[in-house]
Amino acid sequence: VDPMSALKSYGADAIRWYFYINSAPWLPNRFHVKAVQEGQRKFMGTLWNTYAFFVLYANIDGFDPTAYKLEYDKLPVMDKWLLSKLNSVVREVDNCLDTYHIPEAGRALDDFVDELSNWYVRRCRERFWAKGMEQDKINAYMTLYTALVTVSKLAAPMIPFMTEDIYRNLVCSVDASAPESVHLCDFPVCDESMIDTDLEQNMDEVLNIVVIGRACRNEANIKQRQPLARMFVKCEKELSEFYREIIEDELNVKTIEFRDDVASFTDYTFKPNFKTLGKRFGGKINAVKELLLGLDGVKAMAELKGDGHVTVVLDGVNEQIEEADLVIETKKVEGFVTGEDHGITVVMDTNLTPELIEEGYVREVISKVQTMRKEADFEVMDHITLYVSGNDKIADIVKKNEAQICRIVLASGVVYGAAEGSVKDWNLNGEDVTLGVKKN
Fold first, then answer.
1. Rounded CA gap, 415 and 395, in Å?
2. Cα–Cα distance for residue pair 414/416, rounded to 1 Å
3. Distances (CA, A) of 375 to 60, 232, 334, 424
């Protein structure tokens, strides 16, 4: 591989990041273009997009980080969680680099930036959209600002050019007394007082539940924008109301119920393993088969897990049959989907009422209008007129929920039966409709 050609194609930072995260520096290393591109997209792209998000709204609000302080006691739980994770990753990266565990340091940064963007920023976006500069908005700005500046310093030895850009714009542009380069700054030091292990563990539990819940939705082929009535969770400890609300919002579920047992949502069918039980029971194997098929699946599974066998009565004799001698089939209860991982079981109720279906259409309309705003290059705060035509059912749903839709998409009003401005045809859950957006 010609180094200059690779540097010209992908940039020095992407090449450096690939070598840092791929393997220890003293090990032989094959060069993989796809891995370079993946790191460029996943870590560097995510970091840059998060930085760009902050800059966009900070410019809109004229936010000056030197005019405020990060007041820990005033912070909500999400901000305290991010600062705890940030200081944990400072400690981990520092320890890894100190002991020459280079790829581990890179992966710790990679994981943190992923959670910063795909969890913290996504969960807190609306805080940056709030009017004025109330304390909650200041908290969000200062927490994200602190994370971005700290990450730029942490990652500076690995991706020196991007981190220099981020640092100089975020710090030097507002603080003349700051070092003029990120490479002249002290390396970040972990603030142990900000690390809350319980908070991090609880949020990890939330993230695991959300991932399993999304998998359940995918299995049931139900879009994220379609609200569901309820879900059930079995895990080691029941989470507080704050975490419940996060899960409900993330999975678009009305209520979450923690249970010690969710076995009733899954049934089991037991059949004999003919290879082993055929030798044992000979001509009576079909009778054993009928006995196994007649078992209460949930009770039999509980017995199998508790005692290591199931018991059937054959010709007045108790016969104990172990798991290795059984073929067990899992049967989902109609209207429910179950997922398991990390010792957590999630059950989603996929039954849809007319009210839930209508709410799903409202969310689809909002999503499509927001997409059209972006495609039309409207500014974040531009107000629009919304047009709906070509489908009476969708028009009726929009009329019923007009205030909510207008508030979210910044529409001053809705015109029915016509389409002006940027116009596009959509299929919303099987319903064809034409939408238009026009800047006021």
1. 10
2. 6
3. 20, 39, 41, 11
